[in-house]
Amino acid sequence: MSIPETMRALVQLHDGYSGTQEGPAIDTVAPYLELREIPVPQPAAGQVLIKVDLAAVNPSDLHFIKGEYGQPRIKDCPAGFEGVGTVVAGDSPFMGQRVSFFATHSGTWADYAMTEAQGLVPCRPDLAAADAAGQIVNPLTAMAMFDIVRESGADSFILNAAGSQLGKLLIGLGRDYGIAPIAVVRRAEQADLLREHGAAEVLITSDEDMMANAAPILRERKPRILLDAVGDQATADLFFAMPNRARWVNYGKLSTTPPQLTQMGQLIFQQKVIEGFWLTRWMKDTAPQKLGAVIAEVQERFVSGKWQTDVAAIVPLADVMQSLPAATKVVDGKVFIKP
Amino acid sequence: MSIPETMRALVQLHDGYSGTQEGPAIDTVAPYLELREIPVPQPAAGQVLIKVDLAAVNPSDLHFIKGEYGQPRIKDCPAGFEGVGTVVAGDSPFMGQRVSFFATHSGTWADYAMTEAQGLVPCRPDLAAADAAGQIVNPLTAMAMFDIVRESGADSFILNAAGSQLGKLLIGLGRDYGIAPIAVVRRAEQADLLREHGAAEVLITSDEDMMANAAPILRERKPRILLDAVGDQATADLFFAMPNRARWVNYGKLSTTPPQLTQMGQLIFQQKVIEGFWLTRWMKDTAPQKLGAVIAEVQERFVSGKWQTDVAAIVPLADVMQSLPAATKVVDGKVFIKP
Predict the structure, then answer these.
(1) What secondary structure letter does DSSP report for B70?
(2) What angle do CA A298, A302, A305 make, to 5 degrees?
(3) From the list B258, B260, B267, which residue is nearest A274 (CB)?
(4) Topology of B6-134+309-338 in CATH?
(5) Distance from CA of B324 to the nearest CA of A (A)
């Protein structure tokens, strides 16, 4: 396969962090990205070049381009963490094969991307393109955090932003493993759909009686783990209403306001803990064998239909500057970028 | 030793919790306690009766009588968690001996107290009365939390309310084990005294430049553990200025305002954790052999002068209703009650 000298890429306009905490919503990408023709990157030892077939748009990507994510931006470097494509250069046993990957050296929102050779995830032939393009960030986060739920020993767990793609993956895991998901969402319209997916209970944060509705559910089901992508006061209130030894596991910050710790004594007397989860850390800390088994289960779940990827839009790379903000406003699905 | 039928005791006027979160300061004890003549309690199987020689007044006692502690009050039952005295009844190998104890069945602010036979701590003859009366709550909390500091592997740790009795015990441990204490206090006047005790750095929360002063200290010393008895915004700000993998270990709530989590992303990207420490839980979870070794070290530290108990006042039991609030206002020392 001949590789051209230049490619189209959405490159970042800024270095480092912005210092803002606005969350993953965007109304325009112009302050952060620019579509440019740039040289195709050259893989160094241990790296591979991948021709991108389809790239994912995750909340973490939007946090990242805005300078609010846990690693610094690199000016003039293409954005996009995740995608699927074909290995076209570098030192890899998967040369010419279809792989999912997390881009570490040159982002996926481009014709070509670059990553570590050892981080490639070969795809089953029967895995659909959208499932393959998004099989790392959300599915591995869901699997890893569901391990925390299983280790808690409780028959139930709480998740908020439950209507998100990640939320639906977690609900599916709870349904299939018999650990009742208590789904927290903003809008009542989402409740029926989440119950269909397998939510045992649905709590609506826009409901004034939310905490009163939650009380009997928490008493009866005794969840220990709160998987939190929001980080607002409603989440804190829910945490403080949970039973002894509850753990508030934060993995995202959709809210832009800081929650207050109104019941700190519970950390002392009820052994409650507030902590975070970051997939990047989990992948570093997880043995390759375990990682391989988890990835095999992820692909099996997609192919068998236990999980499904709801596609909100597939935006051509050339249209991203104009069309991405509107596409990300679709609540019930995931956005992809097609080079 | 003949045991009378009745005794003087400071009994509680309320059951359960108050729902307030005012902290351990008191201006009067009249809403909570009453000095009464009540029957001397009768030990059941596994319990012992102790003639109280000297009882301690800890912040947890004040939280407790106000209904703000982690266990419910019992109306008409004597207050007071900790003390030293002589075993006078019940089934114990320590009959007639001097023991320190944590009262579980009838409090120490009385002529007689009652506790579990297996919870007695025999005292070395050379251990002073004030050291013996307060050898459980503060010293064991200090030893247990300093274990967390040692396990962190850092060369430094942060403690606030550093001028408290517990703070001084922690500073002494840091000094003796070569882990630099960074002491946080409210008033600049306390700084010299804390440096004398062994504080490597002193931060003053009333200083407007506190965070600016803290920055180079945190960069250089890289503390991982923040031992927190205050729970205010200054504590949260300090936590968010600490390096990766910092743990905010809350064990008290001197502040009456809830802190805000202004940098939740640090829980995710910097693996920071917020948790609590409760001595009662630690004692339940700690093997008796380890507990014995820790208690032996506590007594050795007091007798050898590595630790000392600063006595603010010894209030006669008959004068507590009138004199206790003023005595607890003395900043630099501990209050005891003498039956």
Answers:
(1) S
(2) 135
(3) B267
(4) Quinone Oxidoreductase; Chain A, domain 1 (3.90.180)
(5) 25
